[in-house]
Design goal:
Elements lengths: L12 E6 L8 E7 L4 E8 L3 H15 L8 E7 L4 E7 L3 E3 H4 L5 H18 L15 H12 L9 H10 L9 E3 L8 E4 L4 E3 L6 E3 L6 H7 L4 H11 L6 H21 L5 H17 L9 H4 L19 E2 L3 E4 L6 H8 L5 H4 L7 H12 L4 E6 L5 E8 L9 E8 L8 H16 L4 E7 L3 H10 L2 E11 L4 E11 H9 L13
Parallel strand pairs: 15-16
Antiparallel strand pairs: 1-2, 2-3, 3-5, 4-5, 6-8, 7-10, 8-9, 11-12, 12-13, 13-14, 14-15, 16-18, 17-18
Helix pairs in contact: 3-7, 4-8, 5-8, 6-8, 8-9, 11-13, 14-15
Length: 506
């Protein structure tokens, strides 16, 4: 082509063919070289010279990280000064979004983890002082939301999502800004011939909140592969997803679900319809943004071969009307300390108050990471407020027996959350784990725990004097209760434990 005749390296090109893919304003071409290789050529108007020069410099930063990507080769001006161009290496393979549905769930999850690790590397690039934003995107997001609200494209029952964004807008941009890929999802990744992930299309790079990179998993990732999305999140956070991520991500998803409909308007009804479908799916996944962890993550199903860093197979998340019960992570240490540092909580159950966030982190690593131990997480906040679990000890000596234990933070006493969580744990114990008996106990004076066990239907067995409480260096009077599988099934049949959980008050 004449417009590229003044590119010196063009003498090594055998052919140049237009590449009509993607939403970029760049003009793209596939170059085939005389030696049989392939390159990617991107061209733009000369008015974009400074922006494209900066983009090429950002790609050079990413290229030093060592992951597979379209590498920067050459930057310059062509077409007698009317265009700017960049030449990049070609990444062999097929679009990841096309490959994922053809792979096993385990392989999809593995590729998601690989992509999550790459994204973490991108975000690790030191930010130059001249690139630090002077303001956040909060104001921009609210203005875009207002444009949606003023449009004729509003969804029915969108008020909950609108309120969530407005009420929680300060949950975004709480992290130090980073260099972003800007459009990181399976549509801009390559399933390479060697089975690994390659990254392309950096033209939407920007500097911003690292958590913003994830909302497109809901828009474009889950419709292709939920295991991939699970893997990307898990690996990015090194299998310890912090609670503040979920709160911020829900803001980004709620905003994008609504504003993308307005954004699609210039592109025609078909694009609008596609964005409406994605918004409806997001509303379902987030329960109209009454919860902040999407159902596809909360109800995750990861192949057993892909369990990472837990030390057990305890990856299950259980759900009730108001709660998620999921494994503890070290990222929960601050919330754990918030409640476990209250002297009204631990000593009543036989363990000492937590003395610091680091102490709580050690307890999570050494105690709360045990199999069948779950954080009690409020759906409305995504934050843990207590703990519940099934354990083997002196009471539960047989393989088909375990003991139920629990605690919850003082601000949540009297809200019926422990009975709600315990009913689901009993269902899990008898239906999923096929236990024959579940034991439960309390110390003299712990009236709250006593009432919980009575409400659940446990039968009183015996009282023991001078029970050693080793963590506190004292002895107490203990009381022991029991529930058998037959008793639980009988209560279920009488609908004393209905499938739709009731909110009983402690």
């Amino acid at each position: 082509m004449d417009m590229f005749s003044d590119i010196a390296s063009g003498k090594d090109w055998a052919s140049i063919e237009p590449l009509n893919k993607g939403w970029s304003s760049d003009v793209k071409y596939v170059i085939r070289t005389v030696s049989g290789g392939q390159l990617l050529l991107r061209a733009a108007d000369i008015a974009q010279y400074e922006d494209k020069k900066k983009e090429f410099g950002i790609i050079e930063k990413y290229a030093k990280l060592g992951f597979p990507m379209s590498m920067p080769l050459e930057f310059g001006v062509c077409n007698d000064g009317r265009n700017v161009y960049m030449l990049l290496s070609w990444v062999d393979g097929c679009d990841l979004e096309e490959a994922l549905p053809k792979l096993s769930e385990a392989e999809q999850y593995r590729l998601g983890r690989e992509a999550g690790a790459i994204l973490r590397e991108i975000h690790s690039v030191p930010l130059e002082e001249c690139d630090i934003p002077r303001k956040t995107k909060k104001e921009k997001k609210l203005l875009q939301l207002a444009r949606y609200e003023a449009s004729a494209l509003r969804l029915p029952d969108d008020e909950t999502a609108i309120r969530y964004v407005r009420k929680n807008i300060d949950r975004i941009w709480q992290q130090p800004p980073v260099y972003q890929h800007g459009d990181f999802h399976p549509g801009n990744l390559i399933f390479m011939n060697d089975g690994s992930v390659g990254v392309i299309d950096f033209n939407r790079w920007e500097v911003g909140d690292p958590y913003e990179e994830f909302y497109k998993l809901e828009s474009f990732g889950t419709e292709v592969s939920i295991p991939y999305c699970l893997g990307q999140i898990d690996a990015y956070f090194d299998d310890a997803v912090p609670s503040d991520f979920w709160a911020a991500n829900a803001v980004y998803v709620a905003h994008a679900s609504l504003y993308s409909i307005k954004w699609a308007e210039p592109f025609g009804q078909a694009e609008i319809n596609g964005m409406v479908k994605r918004a409806e799916r997001a509303f379902a996944d987030f329960d109209s943004f009454r919860q902040i962890i999407p159902k596809w993550y909360a109800e995750r199903r990861i192949p057993a071969a892909e369990v990472h860093r837990t030390g057990s197979d305890n990856t299950m998340t259980l759900e009730t009307e108001r709660l998620f019960l999921r494994p503890w992570t070290e990222a929960d240490a601050e919330e754990c300390f918030r409640y476990a540092s209250d002297p009204r909580v631990g000593p009543a159950a036989g363990w000492p108050v937590h003395t610091s966030v680091e102490n709580s982190r050690e307890v999570i690593r050494g105690v709360l990471s045990a199999p069948e131990t779950y954080a009690i997480v409020l759906k409305e906040t995504g934050l843990p407020v207590g703990s519940i679990g099934l354990h083997r000890n002196d009471l539960a000596e047989k393989d088909d027996e375990m003991e139920l234990g629990y605690w919850i933070g003082v601000p949540y006493w009297g809200r019926g959350l422990v009975p709600e969580a315990a009913r689901e744990m009993l269902r899990h114990a008898f239906e999923d784990l096929h236990l024959a008996r579940v034991w439960c106990g309390y110390y003299d004076g712990n009236e709250k725990s006593k009432r919980v066990q009575e409400k659940l239907g446990f039968r009183y067995q015996w009282k023991s004097e001078n029970v050693p409480v080793s963590q506190l260096g004292e002895t107490r009077t203990g009381h022991v209760n029991l529930m058998t599988r037959e008793e639980w099934e009988a209560m279920r049949s009488r609908e004393d434990l209905p499938d739709t959980l009731r909110s009983e008050r402690m």
